[in-house]
């Protein structure tokens, strides 16, 4: 049981105790369109808590990504994709923090959005995510 100051009973927890395991831990949620609003100047809002998160490899570690389909290039970068990898260090131990990830200007023909919470292989510890929302910039906490 993880003590929490932000506990509504519906938090997502990714945990890996074995750094030698293949594949790490990933959770994703796909949101199907069509979207009523133009997704320009929107943000992903999420609360994050870390417990003894350590990286033992050259992997990207732990991160959050949002991908829209269709993708605009084979590397899944640029239009319709954003990641916190390299921008936000999800490591160590910390109590609840609030994270905002500015979404890119998605293409007009956006079919779906997928949110990924990732601990790549070579990462040990526990990450807890709660209160996940996608909202226009300037709203939320």
Task: State the distance separating the first and last CA atoms.
Answer: 26 Å
**Rg over alpha carbons:** 15 Å
SSE series: EEEEEEEE
Mean pLDDT over all positions? 78
CATH class: Mainly Beta
Q: Strand order across the biggest sheet?
A: 1-8-3-6
Number of helices: 0
Structural description of this entry:
With 141 residues, the protein is mainly beta. It is globular. The chain has one domain (12-136): Galactose-binding domain-like (Jelly Rolls, Sandwich), CATH 2.60.120.260. The strands form two sheets. The chain has a four-stranded antiparallel beta sheet with strand order 1-8-3-6, with no helix packed on it. Strands 2-7-4-5 form a four-stranded antiparallel beta sheet, with no helix packed on it. It is built from no helices and eight strands. Helix content is 0%, strand content 50%. Residues 1-6 have low confidence and may be disordered. It has strands spanning 12-16, 25-32, 42-55, 62-69, 81-83, 92-102, 112-119, 123-136.
Give me the secondary-structure topology.
Elements: E1 12-16, E2 25-32, E3 42-55, E4 62-69, E5 81-83, E6 92-102, E7 112-119, E8 123-136
Antiparallel strand pairs: 1-8, 2-7, 3-6, 3-8, 4-5, 4-7
Task: Give a brief description.
This protein is mainly β and 141 residues long.
Keywords:
141 residues; mainly beta; Jelly Rolls; 4-stranded antiparallel β-sheet; 8 strands; disordered N terminus
């Amino acid at each position: 049981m993880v003590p929490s100051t932000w506990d509504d009973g519906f938090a997502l927890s990714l945990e890996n105790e074995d750094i030698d395991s293949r594949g790490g831990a990933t959770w994703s949620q796909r949101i199907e369109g069509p979207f009523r609003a133009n997704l320009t100047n929107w943000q992903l809002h999420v609360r994050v808590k870390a417990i003894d998160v350590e990286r033992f490899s050259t992997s990207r570690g732990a991160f959050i990504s949002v991908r829209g389909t269709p993708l605009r290039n084979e590397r899944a970068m640029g239009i319709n994709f954003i990641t916190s990898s390299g921008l936000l260090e999800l490591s160590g131990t910390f109590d609840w923090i609030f994270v905002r990830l500015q979404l890119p200007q998605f293409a007009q023909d956006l079919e779906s959005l997928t949110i990924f919470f990732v601990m790549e292989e070579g990462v040990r510890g526990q990450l807890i995510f709660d209160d996940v929302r996608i909202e226009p910039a300037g709203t939320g906490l």
